[in-house]
Amino acid sequence: MPAEKAAAKAAHGPPAAPALAGRRVMVVGLGVSGRAAARLLHRLGAQLLLADARREAAKGLDVDGQVLIGDPAPGRLAGVELAVASPGVSPDAPLLRALDSAGVPVIGELELACRFISAPIVGVTGTNGKSTVTTLVGAMLKAAGHRVFVGGNLGTPLSEAAGAELDVAVVEVSSFQLERIETFRPRVAVLLNITEDHLDRHRSLEAYRRAKARLFMNQGAEDWAIVNRDDPLVWDLRSGLRARVLSFGARPAPAPAAWSEGQRVVLDDGRTRRQLSLAATRLVGIHASANAMAAAGAAMLLGVPAEIAQRCLESFVGLPHRMERFCRRDGVDFVDDSKATNVGAVVAALAALFGPVILLAGGRDKGGSYAPLCAAAKGKVRLAILFGEARETMQQALKGGAKTLLAQDLEEAVRSAWAAARPGDTVLLSPACSSFDQFIDYAERGRRFQELVASL
């Protein structure tokens, strides 16, 4: 593959960074991304208006600015020249609609940050696996000696890297973030897969796919798009891409391509063929080889030698709350897959497990269909214990696929699972829902699950 040095500044580079000193800029949403954007804007000398619908969101702010709680009166928008919206704020929010109507440009935190990043960017998106691939690409680049930022939707907002001396930025990108980009242009853009998710916001699978496809919209002929040829919703996008395409999938394909051969993955750029072994890795699930292909492909396109990519695959220990087998008690295994917030992730988790499963699932509905769970559970799930707001809807979808039991919350679900468990069973928390009915996020839900198991 081309040995492009990540340290070399991209020829196309970011657009000229706007001068924001003294300009009146509004930040909408004061979560992690909004606060990072506010800190960057503060460093740039902007006059800040900080808006959030929640009164408690203003606590602990570490920048100066006028704080607006709730929906500001139209007069409060006077003089605002730019707004930066956090990804968690719906495009239908009254304040964003008012800003749009007033002709105020509204961008996302990702778009703001990329205007102050001169290093090449690797952007990784997909319904499932993007955190794993982002982390792996970052590890491979760091092991090759590059100065690397790893973050985005994964945890640390890209705004934290603005102005830093970097060779490359590796960014996990969500569909919410992609809604508000204008110039964001990855040197390497990775789209892993698309299954139903976030339909409570995007309204349809096609709208969700269009949001994901925006990852490629600013790429040119010197950039790379890494796409999954085994996923029709991804592969059908290739005809509209201007970037060079590296495809990956289960079977051999014309170069540039990657595919799997038993416990190995093969990467072929048409000139050189490299092989990496998965035999010693701790990647789990049916997507393990696909994630390895995508990550190694992205790293090698930026000049990482195959031997370094191999070492990183072997040393990777996985991420918390993603098929994390954390405990065995009396012959019963407990697996924390709290990050499985959509049906596709749960189907993949069940396919990766052997033996009887007691499935703990539920939470807040995200608008997709639970129907695929029925087929995935049949013959694999001995008991599905369903909790949270979506439990009754999920119970209807699982009829004929598995015996079900309803629980009010995760604590009751864990107690019921332990009472029903037998040696050889796996108790799997893989919710297929968001956590927001009872928890701050999936990580809190996963930590609580592990605490409850420890207290049995």
Account of the protein in words:
The chain has 456 residues and is of the alpha/beta class. The protein has three domains: 24-104, Rossmann fold; 112-315, Mur-like, catalytic domain (UDP-N-acetylmuramoyl-L-alanine:D-glutamate ligase), CATH 3.40.1190.10; 324-454, Protein-Tyrosine Phosphatase, Chain A, CATH 3.90.190. The protein has 15 helices and 20 strands. The chain has helices at residues 32-43, 94-101, 109-114, 130-143, 175-178, 199-202, 205-213, 232-235, 288-301, 306-315, 343-352, 371-377, 391-397, 410-420, 442-454, and strands spanning 24-28, 47-52, 66-69, 82-85, 106-108, 121-125, 148-152, 168-172, 188-191, 224-228, 244-249, 257-261, 264-268, 273-277, 324-329, 332-336, 357-362, 381-387, 404-406, 426-429. It has a nine-stranded mixed β-sheet with strand order 7-8-6-9-10-11-12-13-14. Strands 15-16-20-17-18-19 form a six-stranded mixed β-sheet, with helices on both faces. Helix 4 crosses helix 9 (288-301). The longest helix is centred in the N-terminal third of the chain and has 14 residues, at 130-143. The radius of gyration is 23 Å and the shape is globular. 50% of the residues are buried.
